[in-house]
Amino acid sequence: MDKSDVTLERMRSFVRVAERGNFSAVARELNIGQSSVTRHLSELEDALGVALLSRTTRRVSLTEEGRRYYAHAVQILRLVEQAGDEVRQAHGEHAGTVRLSCTAALGVRHIARLLFAFQDRHPEIRIEFSLTDERIDLVREGVDLALRLGPLDDSSMKRRSLGSSRRVLVAAPDFLARYGRPRTPEDLAGLEGIRMSNIAGSETLVLEGPDGSRHAVPFGGRLQVDHGLAAREAFAEGRGFGPTHVWLVDDLLEQGRLEPILPDYVPAPTPLNMLIVPERAGIARVRLLIEFLVGAIARLPGIEAKAL
Fold this sequence. Notes:
Elements: H1 8-20, H2 23-30, H3 34-48, E1 53-55, E2 60-62, H4 64-90, E3 96-102, H5 104-121, E4 125-131, H6 138-141, E5 145-149, E6 158-165, E7 167-171, H7 173-179, E8 194-196, E9 204-208, E10 214-218, E11 223-225, H8 228-236, E12 242-245, H9 246-255, E13 259-260, E14 270-276, H10 284-297, E15 303-304
Parallel strand pairs: 3-4, 3-5, 8-11
Antiparallel strand pairs: 1-2, 5-14, 6-14, 6-15, 7-12, 7-13, 9-10
Helix pairs in contact: 1-2, 1-3, 1-4, 2-3, 5-10
């Protein structure tokens, strides 16, 4: 083989194997056989005359030459994709796939509907929508951008602040009829709560008063859940009270199935951010979805957009 055998197909297979470290996962992602991925890598290494990957029975890792080649290959593939975007834009077209990851409850309650509206505007753009509360590695999983609630520690991604998500204390009317309506934060102690077991520190309810005072109240109950949608159902069924994002229960509040309690004492809002893989940020269809979501999310119930 010679250098003319360095094809984009082989380069793309190499880049994804380098990122995912797994031949079978890349084969599923690219919708080809695992043997094809293996062949692409072997043919690319033969054409270059160097080993790009070190393979053992347990893992795949980049050689020194592989690390250098990977950095250039990523840029080449990005430029090729951008070139195609520019040609399509010249004809007023946008096409291709955008992969979005989102916190599950937010995705189900609101983001899915926003994506429907986006695709109505841009019917040639495919969206792969992944719902998870895990902090996944965006590059490894082949995701272009992610919506995340809470503090972030991934400095390798581009970050765009979408503001914060306001939270309130809620309970069902029949729950309040049975146990009484709390008048002060101290009245919450011992009251049956619905606690999120996957949030650190959730055994204490921390509230800020109207004068800026801080109130910490022990919080718990017979039911603990690890998903916001389960908490929503528990609140609606009168199983307990608790803090929740406004966007999670806005419809139930409007219908009177839930009521805010101690409205002058509020849990701290939660940061809402968009993470973007830097190499994907310049692609036209990704930029389109970013700008659409930034504007649409700012109008969701309880979202306090960051001031410009």
